[in-house]
Every structure is written in structure tokens, then in C-alpha cells.
Amino acid sequence: MGLQKILLRQHVGALTEPVVKVGDKVEKGTLISKPTGLGANIFSSVYGKVSEITDDAIIIEKDENQPEEFIKLKGEDKLQLIKDAGVVGMGGAGFPTAIKLGTKVKYILVNAAECEPLLHHNINQIIDNTDMTIRGLKYVMEICKAEKGIFAIKAKNDKAVDALVEGCKDDDSLDIHLLPDIYPMGEERAVVREALGILLQPTDLPSVADAVVINVETLLRVAEAIELKKPCFSKNVTVVGRLSGGVKPHVFMDVPVGTSVKELIERAGGIDGEIGEIIMGGPFTGKACELDTPITKTTGGIIVTQAFEDLQGEKMGLLVCACGGNEERMTDIAKKMNAEVVCVQKCKQAADVKGNLKCENPGNCPGQALKVMNIKKAGAKHILIGNCTDCSNTVMGSAPKMNLEVHHQTDHVLQTVGKDVIRYMTNSKHVPQLGEVEKEVLVQAQSIEKPKVETNEVNAVSFTNEGGLVISLKEGKDVNIEFVID
Question: Less crowded by CB within 10 Å, the N or C end of the chain?
């Protein structure tokens, strides 16, 4: 039947410590590894025998027969069951859920944005398993003594929205907040800002806004732990890309943790022709992986991409954003595009928080002209960006005027499935909420009086390049204005 490779770290924190040995028989739900510090329990997802234990994984030789039954958890305390089940944030972060829920808050915000392009498993879950998803939220609200539970979901997902409306209609403690279809509306602080109107600092946790943010699949695993006494050993995954089964996303529910990327791709029809890379995760935040890479509790997507464009050694600058791939990931993409990286710039809103970049205001960009100018001055002909929708839009306001060819780190992914690449923002940042009527505002430009402008002395620095002028004005804490005049 093959081997199941179950990693010892599938969460924020350190490697867990195995509690089984080579030769032990295991079943679905057998505890095989426990945390020694911050972390979560890890369980066997299959019936079989432990064949090897490495520094980072337990490898199980699977039995031919794989019954659906699993070893059940014991106890009745809801928070303890969540901890014992090893539930973590299933949206990618992997923070142990029991720790997150160990505080009293007013709001539980459900991240149902499924923000990464092409991924569909969260939306499918809401449509197909609405009741259990909502019950998961109610359990979390009970544990945190929260007064309000709010689903934050993109308005475009009308079937899922309708399912939530029907499921929540008789409960005044539940609400739905509609999000625009732009990236990164699923970022934790973006969810807080959109649903509660509170902009957190990059170092703030949602608790500062009296809230907990929890992924929609995590709610399902919470409900399973409490109602079914089921350990967390399965994951919902979207497989998409250059596949013989077509470019339409293939959604697989309850995939046993440890299943290889290769096996899931084969279930989706197999690879179709020459490829560029295989990504584990989403187009923005995922990373290249191999066919034998095992899925974990935090795996959301597997994407098979077309071949990369060959830039034949031409010079490229990287604009690294907190919303997309890190510098290592973008450097890897540049290498695969056969480009020479000559300059690396960080997005002006990317704050370094303990070695990780956090956007100061996710999805709202003040402009990137100065960063683009620095890349141009370094001699680059190309700029590779991984920015959010709005930042990409602002890059397009300056880079083409400097004769820089713009590439987005998601290009090869979106082109694979025939979707438009990310350049100019075409969707509104604002959507009407349920029950609201969108107001049309007609503006007669000729009737608007020109505002009076008061001039004051300000600190200013300017840069000139090939006939263009960049002026950076800075006054006070939150003002940073840049103009590019062609």
C-alpha cells in the first residue's frame, strides 16, 4: 500500500517528540508524537506499522485495508478536547488553536475569505457542511465567552454566502461581513479592519481589538473534536494547474495527513506536459515543493504550473512585499526565470516583526514609486513583485514609465489556468453589505470648486532619472506622498 510520511512539525513551534517506535502497529487516531513546548499533538492518519523514524518525520507502512474507524479522544471538556485533538490553524499559520482560544474576547471573526487565488476548499466546505461549520463557531464562542461571531467572506462567493445566511438566520449572535475580491482580504489584521473597523499595528494581535480570528476549516476540526471525538489527522486540499484532469480546481476533502503531493496530483488526473514548478500553498504565499513532499495540517493547495518565461540572463529587481513570497521565494522565481537579481527592495509598508514582514495596512498601498526608482537605478530591466492587488496597481503607475517590465510572482500560476495576471486593480475595495443598497454617486466635475491649497514648508527629497522626477514629501508620522511626473 505504500508509505505515509507524517512530519513532526505541522504547526507554529518546535518539532514534536515521537511516542512510538519502529515496528509499532498504529491505527487512524493513534497518538504518535507530542509537543515538548509550543506545538500540537500529531496522530497517525492511517492503519499500518511504523517503518522508520527520522529527525523530522515518522514513516508508516500502510496496511492494504484502511477502515474509516479511528481511535476516539476521551473527555468532555471542549477546550481540552481541542488541545488533545491537536487542532491548529488550518489556513496556513498553524498556531495551536487551544492556546488561541484560551482567552475571553468579545468577537470571534471567521476568516472565510479564501484569499489565495484558485483555492476553493474553504468555500466548498461552507456550502457542503454549513451546519457543522456554524456549530464549530458556536463552540468557539462558548469557550471564549464571545458575544458575536462574524463570518468574513468575499461577496463573490454567492452560494456560500447564501448558505451562511440560511444557517445564521435564527441566531442574532451571528453575522456575515462581505469582503471585496482583492488580495489580501484574508490577512488576519485585514479581517479585523474590515469586520470591526480597527486597524491593528503590525505587532498587534487580534486580541487588541477584543477578537480572535479563526480559519473556517479550523472550525470544522473543532466541531469534529468535540462532537465526534476525532483527532486532527486530515486536511481539505485544492489541487489545480497543468493537469490531465483539466485546469478547473479539484477539491479533495479529508485527505489523510502525510499523503504525498504526487498521490493527490494523480487523483486529479496527473501532470499534463512540461511544467515550471509544483507549489504547495497558494500562488502568493506558497513555496515550491517536490512530488514526494507530504501534506500537513496547514497545506491548502497544490499547484502545478506551466514553464517559466526565459529572460536570458537580463537584470531584474525584486520588490518584496509582506503579502507575498519572502525574499528567498522571489529569488527562487527569478532564478527559474533565468534572470540576474541586481537589486532587492522591501515594500514601503513592510515592517519587520521578529524576522517576518508584516504589512502596516494590508491591501491599502500608499505608492511604490521610490522603490521602483531604486530598482531602475540599479540597472534592472525587469521588476518582479509579489505585492497585494493595490500595491501592484501602484507599481504600474511608475514602473512602465521607467521602461521596467513588470512581472508578478503569480504570473506563471494564473497563466497556467488562463486567468488574467495581476497588474492594474479592477475591483472595488468596497462592497455593499447584506441588506444595503449600493448608492450611485454622480460627480459633475465641472461643478466642483477647486479646493484651496495651503502651502507649508516641508522636508523633501527628490530624485531625477531619464526625464522623470520623483519627489518624496514627509511631514509627521503618517504622511508620505510621492509623485512621478513623466
Answer: C
Distance, CA of 286 to CA of 29 (rounded, Å): 28
Q: Look up the pTM and report it.
A: 0.89
C-alpha cell at 266: 494523480
Query: Under the phi-then-psi rule, with left for phi > 0, alpha for psi from -120 to 50, and beta for the rest, what region is 155?
Result: alpha
Provide the 10 A C-beta neighbour count for residue 277.
21
Of 303, 329, 326, the closest CA to residue 417 belongs to 303
Q: How far apart are the first and last CA of the chain?
A: 64
Per-residue pLDDT tens over the stretch 292-329: 999 999 999 999 999 999 999 999 999 999 989 999 99
Helix (H) or strand (E) holding 263: helix 261-267
pLDDT digits (tens, 9 = 90+) for 401-435: 999 999 999 999 999 999 999 999 988 889 999 98
Question: How many CB atoms sit inside 10 A of residue 462's CB?
Answer: 10
Positive or negative: CA dihedral 359, 363, 366, 370 = positive
Among 93, 103, 72, 456, CA closest to 229: 72
pLDDT surpassing 70 at residue 452: no
CA-CA-CA-CA dihedral for 85, 86, 91, 93, to nearest 10: 160
Write the DSSP string, 280-325: ES-TTT-EE--TTPBP-TT--EEEE-PPPP--TT-EEEEEE-TTS-
- The pLDDT > 70 percentage for the chain reads 90
For residue 473, list its beta bridge partners. Answer: 460, 481
Overall average pLDDT of the 105-125 stretch: 97
- What residues does 32 pair with on adjacent strands? none
Please confirm whether the linkage preceding 184 is cis (ω < 30° from 0): yes
Residue 467, pLDDT score: 43
Contact 149, 175 (CB under 8 A): yes
Mapped onto helix, strand or coil, the DSSP state of residue 428 is coil
pLDDT digits (tens, 9 = 90+) for 242-280: 999 889 999 999 999 999 999 999 999 999 999 999 999
